[in-house]
């Protein structure tokens, strides 16, 4: 039970497929019973589109279980010549003892009726669409909101003596002696359309006009001056002002389209309650001696009487016999429960493991051949044609599932023709828990890479060591042979779509492979493909102890250059956006100045404002183009940074013989974002993740584990701290640290490190000279060789969920 939900006292559904609006709810003592408001001879007026009917309601006590019975007797009716919109009533002109009725038609005519007689009709000046209508008895005037978004007040006396709207068709009951022009008493521009108008009197000497707009709530004095106004943060649907218990203030009920009812005292929010529907009309009354009942009506006929607060709880908890606590037993029980929880988390993970067959199986088949007609958005990149390949995803469900959604993701620059699929009619998930199934698949390397000429020189080189004899590159990459077989055994060139080139060299005698390129980030794809294909090759040969390793120095300097370039583009984008915002503010200010000059009745010189406006406009366009260009460069830089990050993670895994779980932790720390934004960028996110690893599983002492991390991520001033943390991470791993999610395993472990790094020979002569030394170097550390984990995510890999 919530304190902020309206408590249902009584409710019902009116009619069958009926529609209601704010004029369809009236709360009054229409049967003139003794326990009502005490008004004698109260009648009910009902306005139809072409008719006005006045009824007398009488009630008789029921003698059966159906209760009281009510009868409606038609007193009189008026057939209208025009389609009616709304109406109001009151003692127009100060007449006492009876009420007159004023009806507003759809074409802007006010028709006044005095009981059975039609008095007169007047057209409102400048009318376009009808607005809300109310009558103020203190000023004897009608108040409405016109299509000009102005609150307008018309005196009844001015309406009575103005020119008759039906003067050309005078009848015996619609005569007028003389006519004058209809003049408005006062106006107030509120700048928006109004939903409703309500007039509330403080006392005999003052009253307030309340206007509910689309986004604001106004309280006006009798003369049209604003008493106060309240800006609303939501779209209102109806309102009801009423006198407050505090002297000089007024309470207002305002309902909105979020199923909420707000109670204001002047402009102060006093209470908010939730309703089961969106009301179009709200009233407050006394029902069965229950004061302050809130009556609401929705557009589909849901009528509810509710009250605020909660129902009293009659339940009292029984007294529990107090007994002394044995803290030693509680400690033992707590340790046992913690051990059970820890064992369950280690064995099952976050989600419980089920032994039964999966409800949904996802399988992917990649077509071995490219599409005959490329489906790529950009068919050409430079001089290269962009191919496309068809991927077939199969879903097999054992039970009926509920709204299965298939998402396919590939890493940039790869693109998909469609990445979202939703299956509506696979109904029912028995346990109701959302489940995610992943299926990873590899795409052919030729999708973004073509055979190319090998290069003898390159700026960036890395060497991968293996424990098996070198394999012919033709066997590993059969589809990339561009020359004779003899030339392709030990060297092979790759040409990426877009111009980048990578060269792969295999040593003839030293069980090593070299990958080199002019760009550091281009090395990752071929390196990862080489390791995967070597593993597949030796698996087919039945070799189980194959392993790769990396014994060179970690290329952090090249990696840091890419980080600095990416961070520089982020800072540049932030500066450009700030400058664009300043120029936009300046542009709008000049526009306002010019608009004020053009609206001025007396012409004044522009003082070169038009020239300044033109110059500012050109600056805004130039800055917008610069922001767009910087965003494109930032996207490309982030793609290069992700490729370099994959390469660094791969090299760390080979360098330290990390397991698949440890590599997954590194990937989660270094690649937390799929997209880079100004609000949350790669640098601050990765810095927080690495700092967490350094203070938990890679910490030197318990004092470091006790340090708290900053919970708020902000763009840093520079990348020095991030680069320092990455260097420290590699240093901790080199000294025996191990990655794990549990802090229990954070104690440093001892490990024997490789003795050094040797370069791959550039020629056969150089190779013969270092063959002896390199053999001795790697012989001393063969006992450290372990099976290299298969990378989980391929550079040309897609993930479907």
What do these coordinates show?
This protein is α+β, with helices and mostly antiparallel strands and 801 residues long. It has 11 helices and 37 strands. The strands form 10 sheets. It has a 6-stranded antiparallel β-sheet, covered by helices on one side. It has a 4-stranded antiparallel β-sheet with strand order 1-23-22-21, with no helix packed on it. The protein has a 4-stranded antiparallel β-sheet with strand order 5-6-7-8, with no helix packed on it. Helix 4 packs parallel to helix 6 (609-656), helix 6 (609-656) runs antiparallel to helix 7 (660-670) and helix 8 (682-695) packs parallel to helix 10 (720-734). This is Bardet-Biedl syndrome 9.
Highlighted features:
single chain; 801 residues; alpha+beta; Methylamine Dehydrogenase, Chain H; TATA-Binding Protein; 4 domains; 6-stranded antiparallel β-sheet; 4-stranded antiparallel β-sheet; 11 helices; 37 strands; 28% strand
Report the CATH C-level class of the largest domain. Answer: Mainly Beta
Q: How many beta-strand elements?
A: 37
Tell me the domain tally.
Answer: 4
CATH architecture of the largest domain: 7 Propeller
Strand order of the largest sheet: 31-33-34-35-32-36
Q: Helix content range of the residues, please?
A: 25-40%
Number of contiguous helices: 11
CA-based shape: elongated
Question: Rounded to an integer, what's the Rg over CA atoms?
Answer: 41 Å
| Largest beta-sheet details | 6 strands, antiparallel
Which parts are unreliable, with pLDDT below 50 for 5 consecutive residues or more? 168-179, 743-795
Mean pLDDT, rounded to whole units?
A: 80
Strand content: 25-35%
Q: Say which CATH homologous superfamily of the largest domain is assigned.
A: YVTN repeat-like/Quinoprotein amine dehydrogenase
**What is the terminal separation in angstroms?**
39 Å
